[in-house]
Amino acid sequence: MLQSLKRLVIGRPIATADEGHQRLRKIIALPVFASDAISSTAYATDEILVVLLGVGGGAGATKLGVGTKAWGPIIPIAIIVCILMVIVVLSYRQTIHAYPSGGGSYIVSKENLGTIPSLIAGSSLLVDYILTVAVSVAGGVLAIRTATGLSHKWAVPICLVCILMMTLANLRGLKESGSLFAGPTYFYIVMLLLLIATGFYRIFVQHVGPIPDSLLSEEAKAARDHVGSLGLFLLLRAFSSGAVALSGVEAVSNGVPAFKKPEAKNAAATLVWMGVILGSCFLSVSIIAAKLKPYRGEHDGNGLGLVAEYIYHGKGILFWMTMIATFSILILAANTAYADFPRLSSIIAKDGFLPHQFANRGDRLVYSNGVIFLASVACVLIVAFSGDISKLIPLYAFGVFMGFTFSQAGMVRHHIKLKEPHWRVGLTINFIGAVTTGVIALIVVVSKFKQGAWIPALLIPFMVFFFYSIGKHYQRVKKSLEVPEGYKPVRHTHYVVVLVGKVNRGVLEAINYARSLSPERIIALSVVQDPEEERHLHEQWDRYDIQIELHTVSSPYRELTRPVMGFLDEIDQERDDDIITVVIPESVTKVTSQWLHNQSALALKARLLYRPHTVVVSVPVHVD
Amino acid sequence: MLQSLKRLVIGRPIATADEGHQRLRKIIALPVFASDAISSTAYATDEILVVLLGVGGGAGATKLGVGTKAWGPIIPIAIIVCILMVIVVLSYRQTIHAYPSGGGSYIVSKENLGTIPSLIAGSSLLVDYILTVAVSVAGGVLAIRTATGLSHKWAVPICLVCILMMTLANLRGLKESGSLFAGPTYFYIVMLLLLIATGFYRIFVQHVGPIPDSLLSEEAKAARDHVGSLGLFLLLRAFSSGAVALSGVEAVSNGVPAFKKPEAKNAAATLVWMGVILGSCFLSVSIIAAKLKPYRGEHDGNGLGLVAEYIYHGKGILFWMTMIATFSILILAANTAYADFPRLSSIIAKDGFLPHQFANRGDRLVYSNGVIFLASVACVLIVAFSGDISKLIPLYAFGVFMGFTFSQAGMVRHHIKLKEPHWRVGLTINFIGAVTTGVIALIVVVSKFKQGAWIPALLIPFMVFFFYSIGKHYQRVKKSLEVPEGYKPVRHTHYVVVLVGKVNRGVLEAINYARSLSPERIIALSVVQDPEEERHLHEQWDRYDIQIELHTVSSPYRELTRPVMGFLDEIDQERDDDIITVVIPESVTKVTSQWLHNQSALALKARLLYRPHTVVVSVPVHVD
Lengths: 624, 624
Prior knowledge:
Largest interface: A-B, 75 and 75 residues
CATH superfamily of the largest domain in chain A: Amino acid/polyamine transporter I
Largest sheet of chain A: 5 strands, parallel
Shape of chain A: elongated
Strand content of chain A: 5-15%
Number of domains of chain A: 2
Distance between the termini of chain A: 18 Å
Number of strands of chain A: 5
Strand order of the largest sheet of chain A: 3-2-1-4-5
CATH class of the largest domain in chain A: Mainly Alpha
Number of helices of chain A: 22
Helix content of chain A: 55-70%
Structural class of chain A: alpha/beta
Radius of gyration of chain A: 32 Å
Oligomer: homodimer
């Protein structure tokens, strides 16, 4: 029944040989891999404002109250972010061509910088992907709430439902989710361009002024009108918030093998298109914000919604379409992480730094364990931060820029090592990229440390240590399992101990099974608590005429494990058989009632697992 | 290391033969078994007042606001409760003499009324014991908060710490906790008698009036002065709250075997002493309350504390001693449940209606699983009801009186069946007892249904159903495991399948082990995902010159379980060996890294467990 349910929800299994058909055309690849980056136009400008206007700064922030002066730095910040984006896009074009098999920062760092840097890059990206899900879903739900006026208390439940639905869609497989989500991205791009065009027309042709106070909440009004001064630190923090617009730019380079052939060329073209759309839209939205001064306050701050309401004259059809498109693209952005997180974790797992389960693909060619892990952690974040995007943003950018930095530092080494044609140009581009993104990672962690950047700053080193330990462990196990030189098979002799309680069908079957093993020696062992029990057992032994020797051990402390272990040690001293096989009869019932049985046997088996030269055999007796 | 920690906290194991020494003298048995009942003097009067003054009634209660008229019914209610107690004590004396081996309501119902009534009685008492822990601890912590003025938000954490400490004490064993707790009970009795004597002197000799308003909280003042009218329903609800004073009276009859010999005589004497102390103290406290009108409000309502503060002229040494004694006795009361819950659940488990684990005694002769289960559920209750005693009380009395009713109905049958000397007297006593307590159970559940009595009213039938299902299950298993008539041992032939991935030391050891089993037929099975993997495996096979046949199955869907099951089915059709033994090599590492290994094997083994005539053997390879 569970199987049928799984088939219904997840779909039929897909064979490994069908893999090629799952490749993506550019027109589908753009929404799948670029929606994350493009979607940040929906919140990046707002998040700059949240910092500039002194709200959402967390416990440590000084409420500066910066009034109209606060709106000045928006356009400069947006321009700097766009320049940064050009640098990053150019850098990643290099990477795509150098590494057509994909893997992004992790692969590049591994091949050029070594294990530890690659683990830092990998951990950073994994953290980044998880936050992409949390931030994007929170942002999408905020858009819905802006449109409908739903209160903040609905944020967390709606976010969780969205994550659940996406998880199911992704467990079905990549191509289907690609087609499912392609429409909405283009829908968003069209709606955003229409908003920008209409906005520019109103501002520069019709010369409308800022959004009137009557459209704002009380809280937003007060924040917008307050007058204060802007410090450098605050500007840096605002910039750090804007820099989240770049998250997801590396997604294309990670996903190169998912493109149709020629993979590298298609991926590079998609990357450039993404950069153009993202940069122009982000800058335009910021210009509109500087002119119209949309600000809605801390918990209900979807500026795009306020702008749409203003320039479309109220909550009409165009307003609603814009909000629905915003929600859709942000869900798609979260979906990007569903493609990348499992892919990257499977690569890391294949290298032996994550449990092998992350490298196993499920029935539908999806790395199901990665999908489920990603969804679970994202849910935890949503609950922990009340589904509030402004609280999640400070955690976000550090991982993104750490990934960039290591990827581009790796590319610098790559150019120096290989000296391919035009390597000097590539080296220059990647060197500038590495230094710039490294500085920005530093700015992010310092300026937003108290607001939450301390979390990735502590978590990433811990993850690196953890991955490294797993790697060491798997290495050690592999070495230990190597077949020694000059290995010759030996013929074991073995001693069989059948564990019995009272005599029943299960015990008799276990004894029969034990006899069929043709051991050198066989004995039945029973742990008894009192002489009465011992006598009764011997009686039963005679009654059923059981032909093997019965040995009883008394257990004054009502234990099972210790007396059994003691008896086995005695045997080991007396005899020189290689192996002791312990046969345990176990009742097997329906799954739902299995917990009522064999709990003591379970504890004993766990202990025997660690005993050398001991094999445990459970002989099942089916009851139901 | 875990073992050493356990020894440090719990103590050395105690042998079964040492059991006799753990019996209790009367002077120790009184605090252990009667502290629950006696401790209710600390809150029963308050809980009557909470209802009469119209607070703490929960969402469904009408706030009647009954003013000075409300104080009138206290003494009549207290007298009725005392009469009820005489009836119950007399009834239980009959039970103790009829059932010197203990078991209380459950045993009596089982022997006289049958399985279902006994399970109702048993469930009721288990619920009652859990609530005893929650209510008593909440009451004890309230006393501490009354004395220190700690705010309500500390209630839950302090309660949880108390439960944790008690759990540890009880995992150490019964006798030690008895001696540990004996002092405080007598201390409470002395402090309570002193309070009563001083109170009576002040009231009847010095003629002091009610506690002045200046000592009361604002909320309490308003409630005390309000004037309204008393309905019958409210009086019944107030009486139901007072009736909790009787909880714990049955504890002695459950614990008879823990008394020193002659058990029944000692237990009966202890029961009478308990009744005398409880009745006289409860009545006296109620008289004082009627005269001094102590009322502190909903969340800080320890009336005993207010009386002590008033008659001892402030928070001096006598006030503090009274509060500390109150805290101590209530913790002791909770401890009563720690003696009775595990005892009763072990009796029910031995009858096969609860998992066998509840019948297993730990190292220290304590039914450890019962202790841990009790503590866990009590903690959940404390958290769910914010550690507020007035919210817990409505859940409490139903289970208590259900237990009484079934116990005494059972005794009625007992007298009729056996007709021992003086059986008519006994029959009359128990008949009156059964009818009275049955009516009161009904009053409790009706009058407090909305306030929380619906919880035990739903839970107890569910528990009965659950226990009954477990019982059916164990019966069926037992029947199915019976050795059939004319059983003859058969000699099995068997087919061994060794599961291999790639060839390593573990696989070679598994193959060696499989060969030592001298099977009729042996084959190595490998599930491969592609032809490349298959070729590589055959190469390794040749290289290590492995002498058994290798069979490969391809798994296009990257599964392990299904192809293996399919292969086994094929074998079953081809051959007529009785049993297939599947040998699986498993890497065993340190406990902390074991989760990194064998997850797929685990899933396969779980599936194979349900396959008929199939035995799974894990051959461990130790790595670390």
